[in-house]
Design goal:
Elements lengths: L9 H14 L8 E4 L7 H14 L1 E6 L5 H9 L18 E3 L19 E4 L13 E8 L3 E2 L2 E4 L1 H11 L1 H7 L5 E3 L2 E3 L3 E3 L2 E3 L2 E3 L5 E3 L9 E2 L3 H14 L7 E3 L5 E5 L3 E4 L2 E2 L7 E7 L8
Parallel strand pairs: 1-2
Antiparallel strand pairs: 2-16, 3-19, 4-17, 5-16, 5-19, 6-18, 7-15, 7-17, 8-11, 8-14, 9-10, 12-13
Helix pairs in contact: 4-5, 4-6, 5-6
């Protein structure tokens, strides 16, 4: 079967590339879908969500109703997201409440639970192969007083730009030993084994997956010239003004539904009476057109 991500099949890649660039969403307003009742999506609402996912691997929804953890989970189920990656900081439903923790709270050891900036990454880059994060819902229950914006980039576009620059960059970043997250031991979550794997991989259904973090600590890159050049080129892309990178400020009752695209977060200052709160649901599934 033709495979656009096969480095030996340039014809399939070029066809996919042309279609991808033609359909890619570069106007953030075109990513928006309004939902009347997230617990019971209409056919039109569901189709609108899926069409944007198919084009850009992400969609921003605006809900007319506030969502709690159970409704976030219900929304995911309606687009094929069922297998939650319930990390130890998640609640009983497997969903994490992302908010600034008190200084004496164990969550302060993890940057999402602070008001600091978070560099470009895909979620779960430190997970083992059988627990890679494929899909995600990031729902804003309360926005920050100042700051807290996200930038997002479809990982397929990042792949395309790197492959256009030099196909050897993709070959290097697809190596099974290109990126290692060292083992971690702490008093809260115990031992987390080192995880070595590729940046780019293709699943059994032919879907592209990306595993990446721009962190310079707690990460080890393969030390060959092509890998280091590929990493530098990716950093250059993520720091560029390409129209494919979009900046979003999610307000209350809005959310990001995606196939684990690249994203970051700026630092922020809370409104002390209404601190920033996001519900994060991470899945082992991709968004799919379920019945």
């Amino acid at each position: 079967m033709p495979n656009a991500f096969d480095l030996n099949d340039n014809d399939s890649y070029q066809r996919w590339r042309d279609q991808k660039l033609t359909r890619a969403i570069t106007n953030p307003n075109d990513l928006l879908v309004e939902l009347n009742d997230p617990k019971h999506l209409s056919r039109a609402e569901r189709d609108a969500l899926l069409s944007r996912i198919q084009r850009s691997n992400m969609v921003i929804y605006i809900s007319s109703l506030p969502l709690d953890e159970s409704l976030v989970r219900c929304l995911g189920e309606q687009v094929g997201l069922n297998r939650l990656d319930a990390n130890w900081l998640a609640d009983r439903l497997g969903i994490s409440r992302i908010t600034v923790s008190n200084p004496d709270n164990q969550r302060q050891a993890y940057i999402p639970y602070t008001d600091r900036a978070i560099k470009w990454h895909t979620d779960g880059y430190y997970n083992p192969p059988e627990k890679q994060i494929r899909g995600m819902v990031l729902h804003c229950a309360q926005s920050a007083g100042i700051g807290g914006e996200n930038r997002v980039l479809d990982h397929e576009i990042a792949y395309l730009m790197l492959r256009d620059a030099d196909i050897e960059f993709i070959r290097a970043l697809s190596a099974p030993d290109v990126m290692t997250i060292p083992a971690r031991v702490d008093e809260f979550d115990g031992v987390r084994a080192a995880q070595t794997g590729p940046v780019f991989s293709v699943d059994a259904a032919g879907n592209l997956h990306m595993r990446y973090t721009a962190r310079t600590r707690s990460i080890e890159w393969k030390q060959d010239a092509t890998t280091l050049a590929a990493v530098a080129k990716l950093e250059q892309i993520l720091d560029s003004d390409t129209p494919h990178i979009q900046q979003l400020k999610m307000e209350s009752n809005t959310g990001l539904l995606c196939n684990n695209v690249l994203h970051d977060r700026s630092a922020f200052t809370d409104d002390t009476s209404n601190p920033r709160l996001l519900y994060r649901a991470r899945y082992l599934d991709r968004v799919t057109a379920t019945a």
